[in-house]
Amino acid sequence: MKHKSLLLSSAAALAAVAVGIGGTFALFSDTETANNTITAGRLCIESQRDAFDNVPGPMFYMTGAQGSNGTNPGRYPLMEVSPTSPAGYVPPTPGGWAPGDSVTRTLTVLNGSLTCQSLDAKLTHITASLHAGSYAPLADKMKVTVRAQAPGGGMLQVGQAYLSQFLTPAGVAIAYPGPAAITMPGNTGGGFPPNLQMEFQVDFDLDTPNAYQDKDMVVDFVVHAEQAAHNP
Amino acid sequence: MIGKRLALSLLAVGVTSLVVTAASFALFSAQTANNNNTFSAGTVTLGNVANCGNTINNIAPGDSGNFTCSVQYTGSLNAWVGYTATMGGDLTTCDGGGRFTAPGLNTGAVPAVIGTEAAPGDSRSVTVNWAFALAAGNDCQGDSGNIGLTFYAVQARNNTNGTNTGPNAWQ
Asked: What's this model's pTM, rounded to 2 decimal places?
């Protein structure tokens, strides 16, 4: 009996040891998973010509048809009155641009849209490009002054150069006097995007010679922006 | 084991540093365009002069007459139109000169304005009154005189004087 008990005890001990050896590979445990999503913001600026003109469309156009938004003629042609012009409208350059002419048009820049939530932006520079067939030397006779709405109100000059400078790859840098960066808050929280009024004043040199008569050019203006964060 | 883990950690940190370093040169950017801005320069042009190739023969002392030269303004911009004139030929110098005249004709260097500001398509005219003095002597027989007219046009916009009677400059 005693011998049998000893054997049983030993067997049990051996079994326990065996179980113990097997159990070191299967401890009680549990896991929890939590996913963290980090998404980069977007920078999405847009612009529209202003002064209650039909949008979209160019700021400067000679005829109502050239200024059309695809449906209606532009309201403020430079050399004619269009069917959509307001009563009493006087075109500033009848017959075409003459040396000495000066015309100012407005552009509203928006940081974000109803479908795009944008980060805070800093407007950095403006470039331009000519369409094929344009008389490029005309760009040397058109001085462009750009103004932007100041934080405290009013319009401040933020850049000025002949159009030919805007046509270079670097374009023309823009900044408030100081200089101080032109920043626009974004609409990362949604809602209507912040907007900034800008003015483009084009002056045709008074001393432009006859060789420039009857010459045309078509220009695209591009406003460039960068993120404002971490970008002094 | 510890050494291997340390080496792996250091490697991970090194790779991360490389990624961060590369990203610091690439800020988010965006742009917006306003396209198809059209700029067209106007024109200042004159058409051919009309009624101005006059030939008047066999005038006698005491004769006088006139002729009218006209020009059409064909430019797209409004303009001031003016003229200058020249007189020459033996008839202007015979018998001591002054026998063949055109009173009121602008023979100066600066153009004289013709009429009001011209719109595209307008015509402007100059009437030349000539006279052959009754006192002209035989020295003038068979001589010829010439009256030449040159018309000018210059943009009116940004170039009109304070009284709205002519340009600030002709060129």
From this structure: 0.84
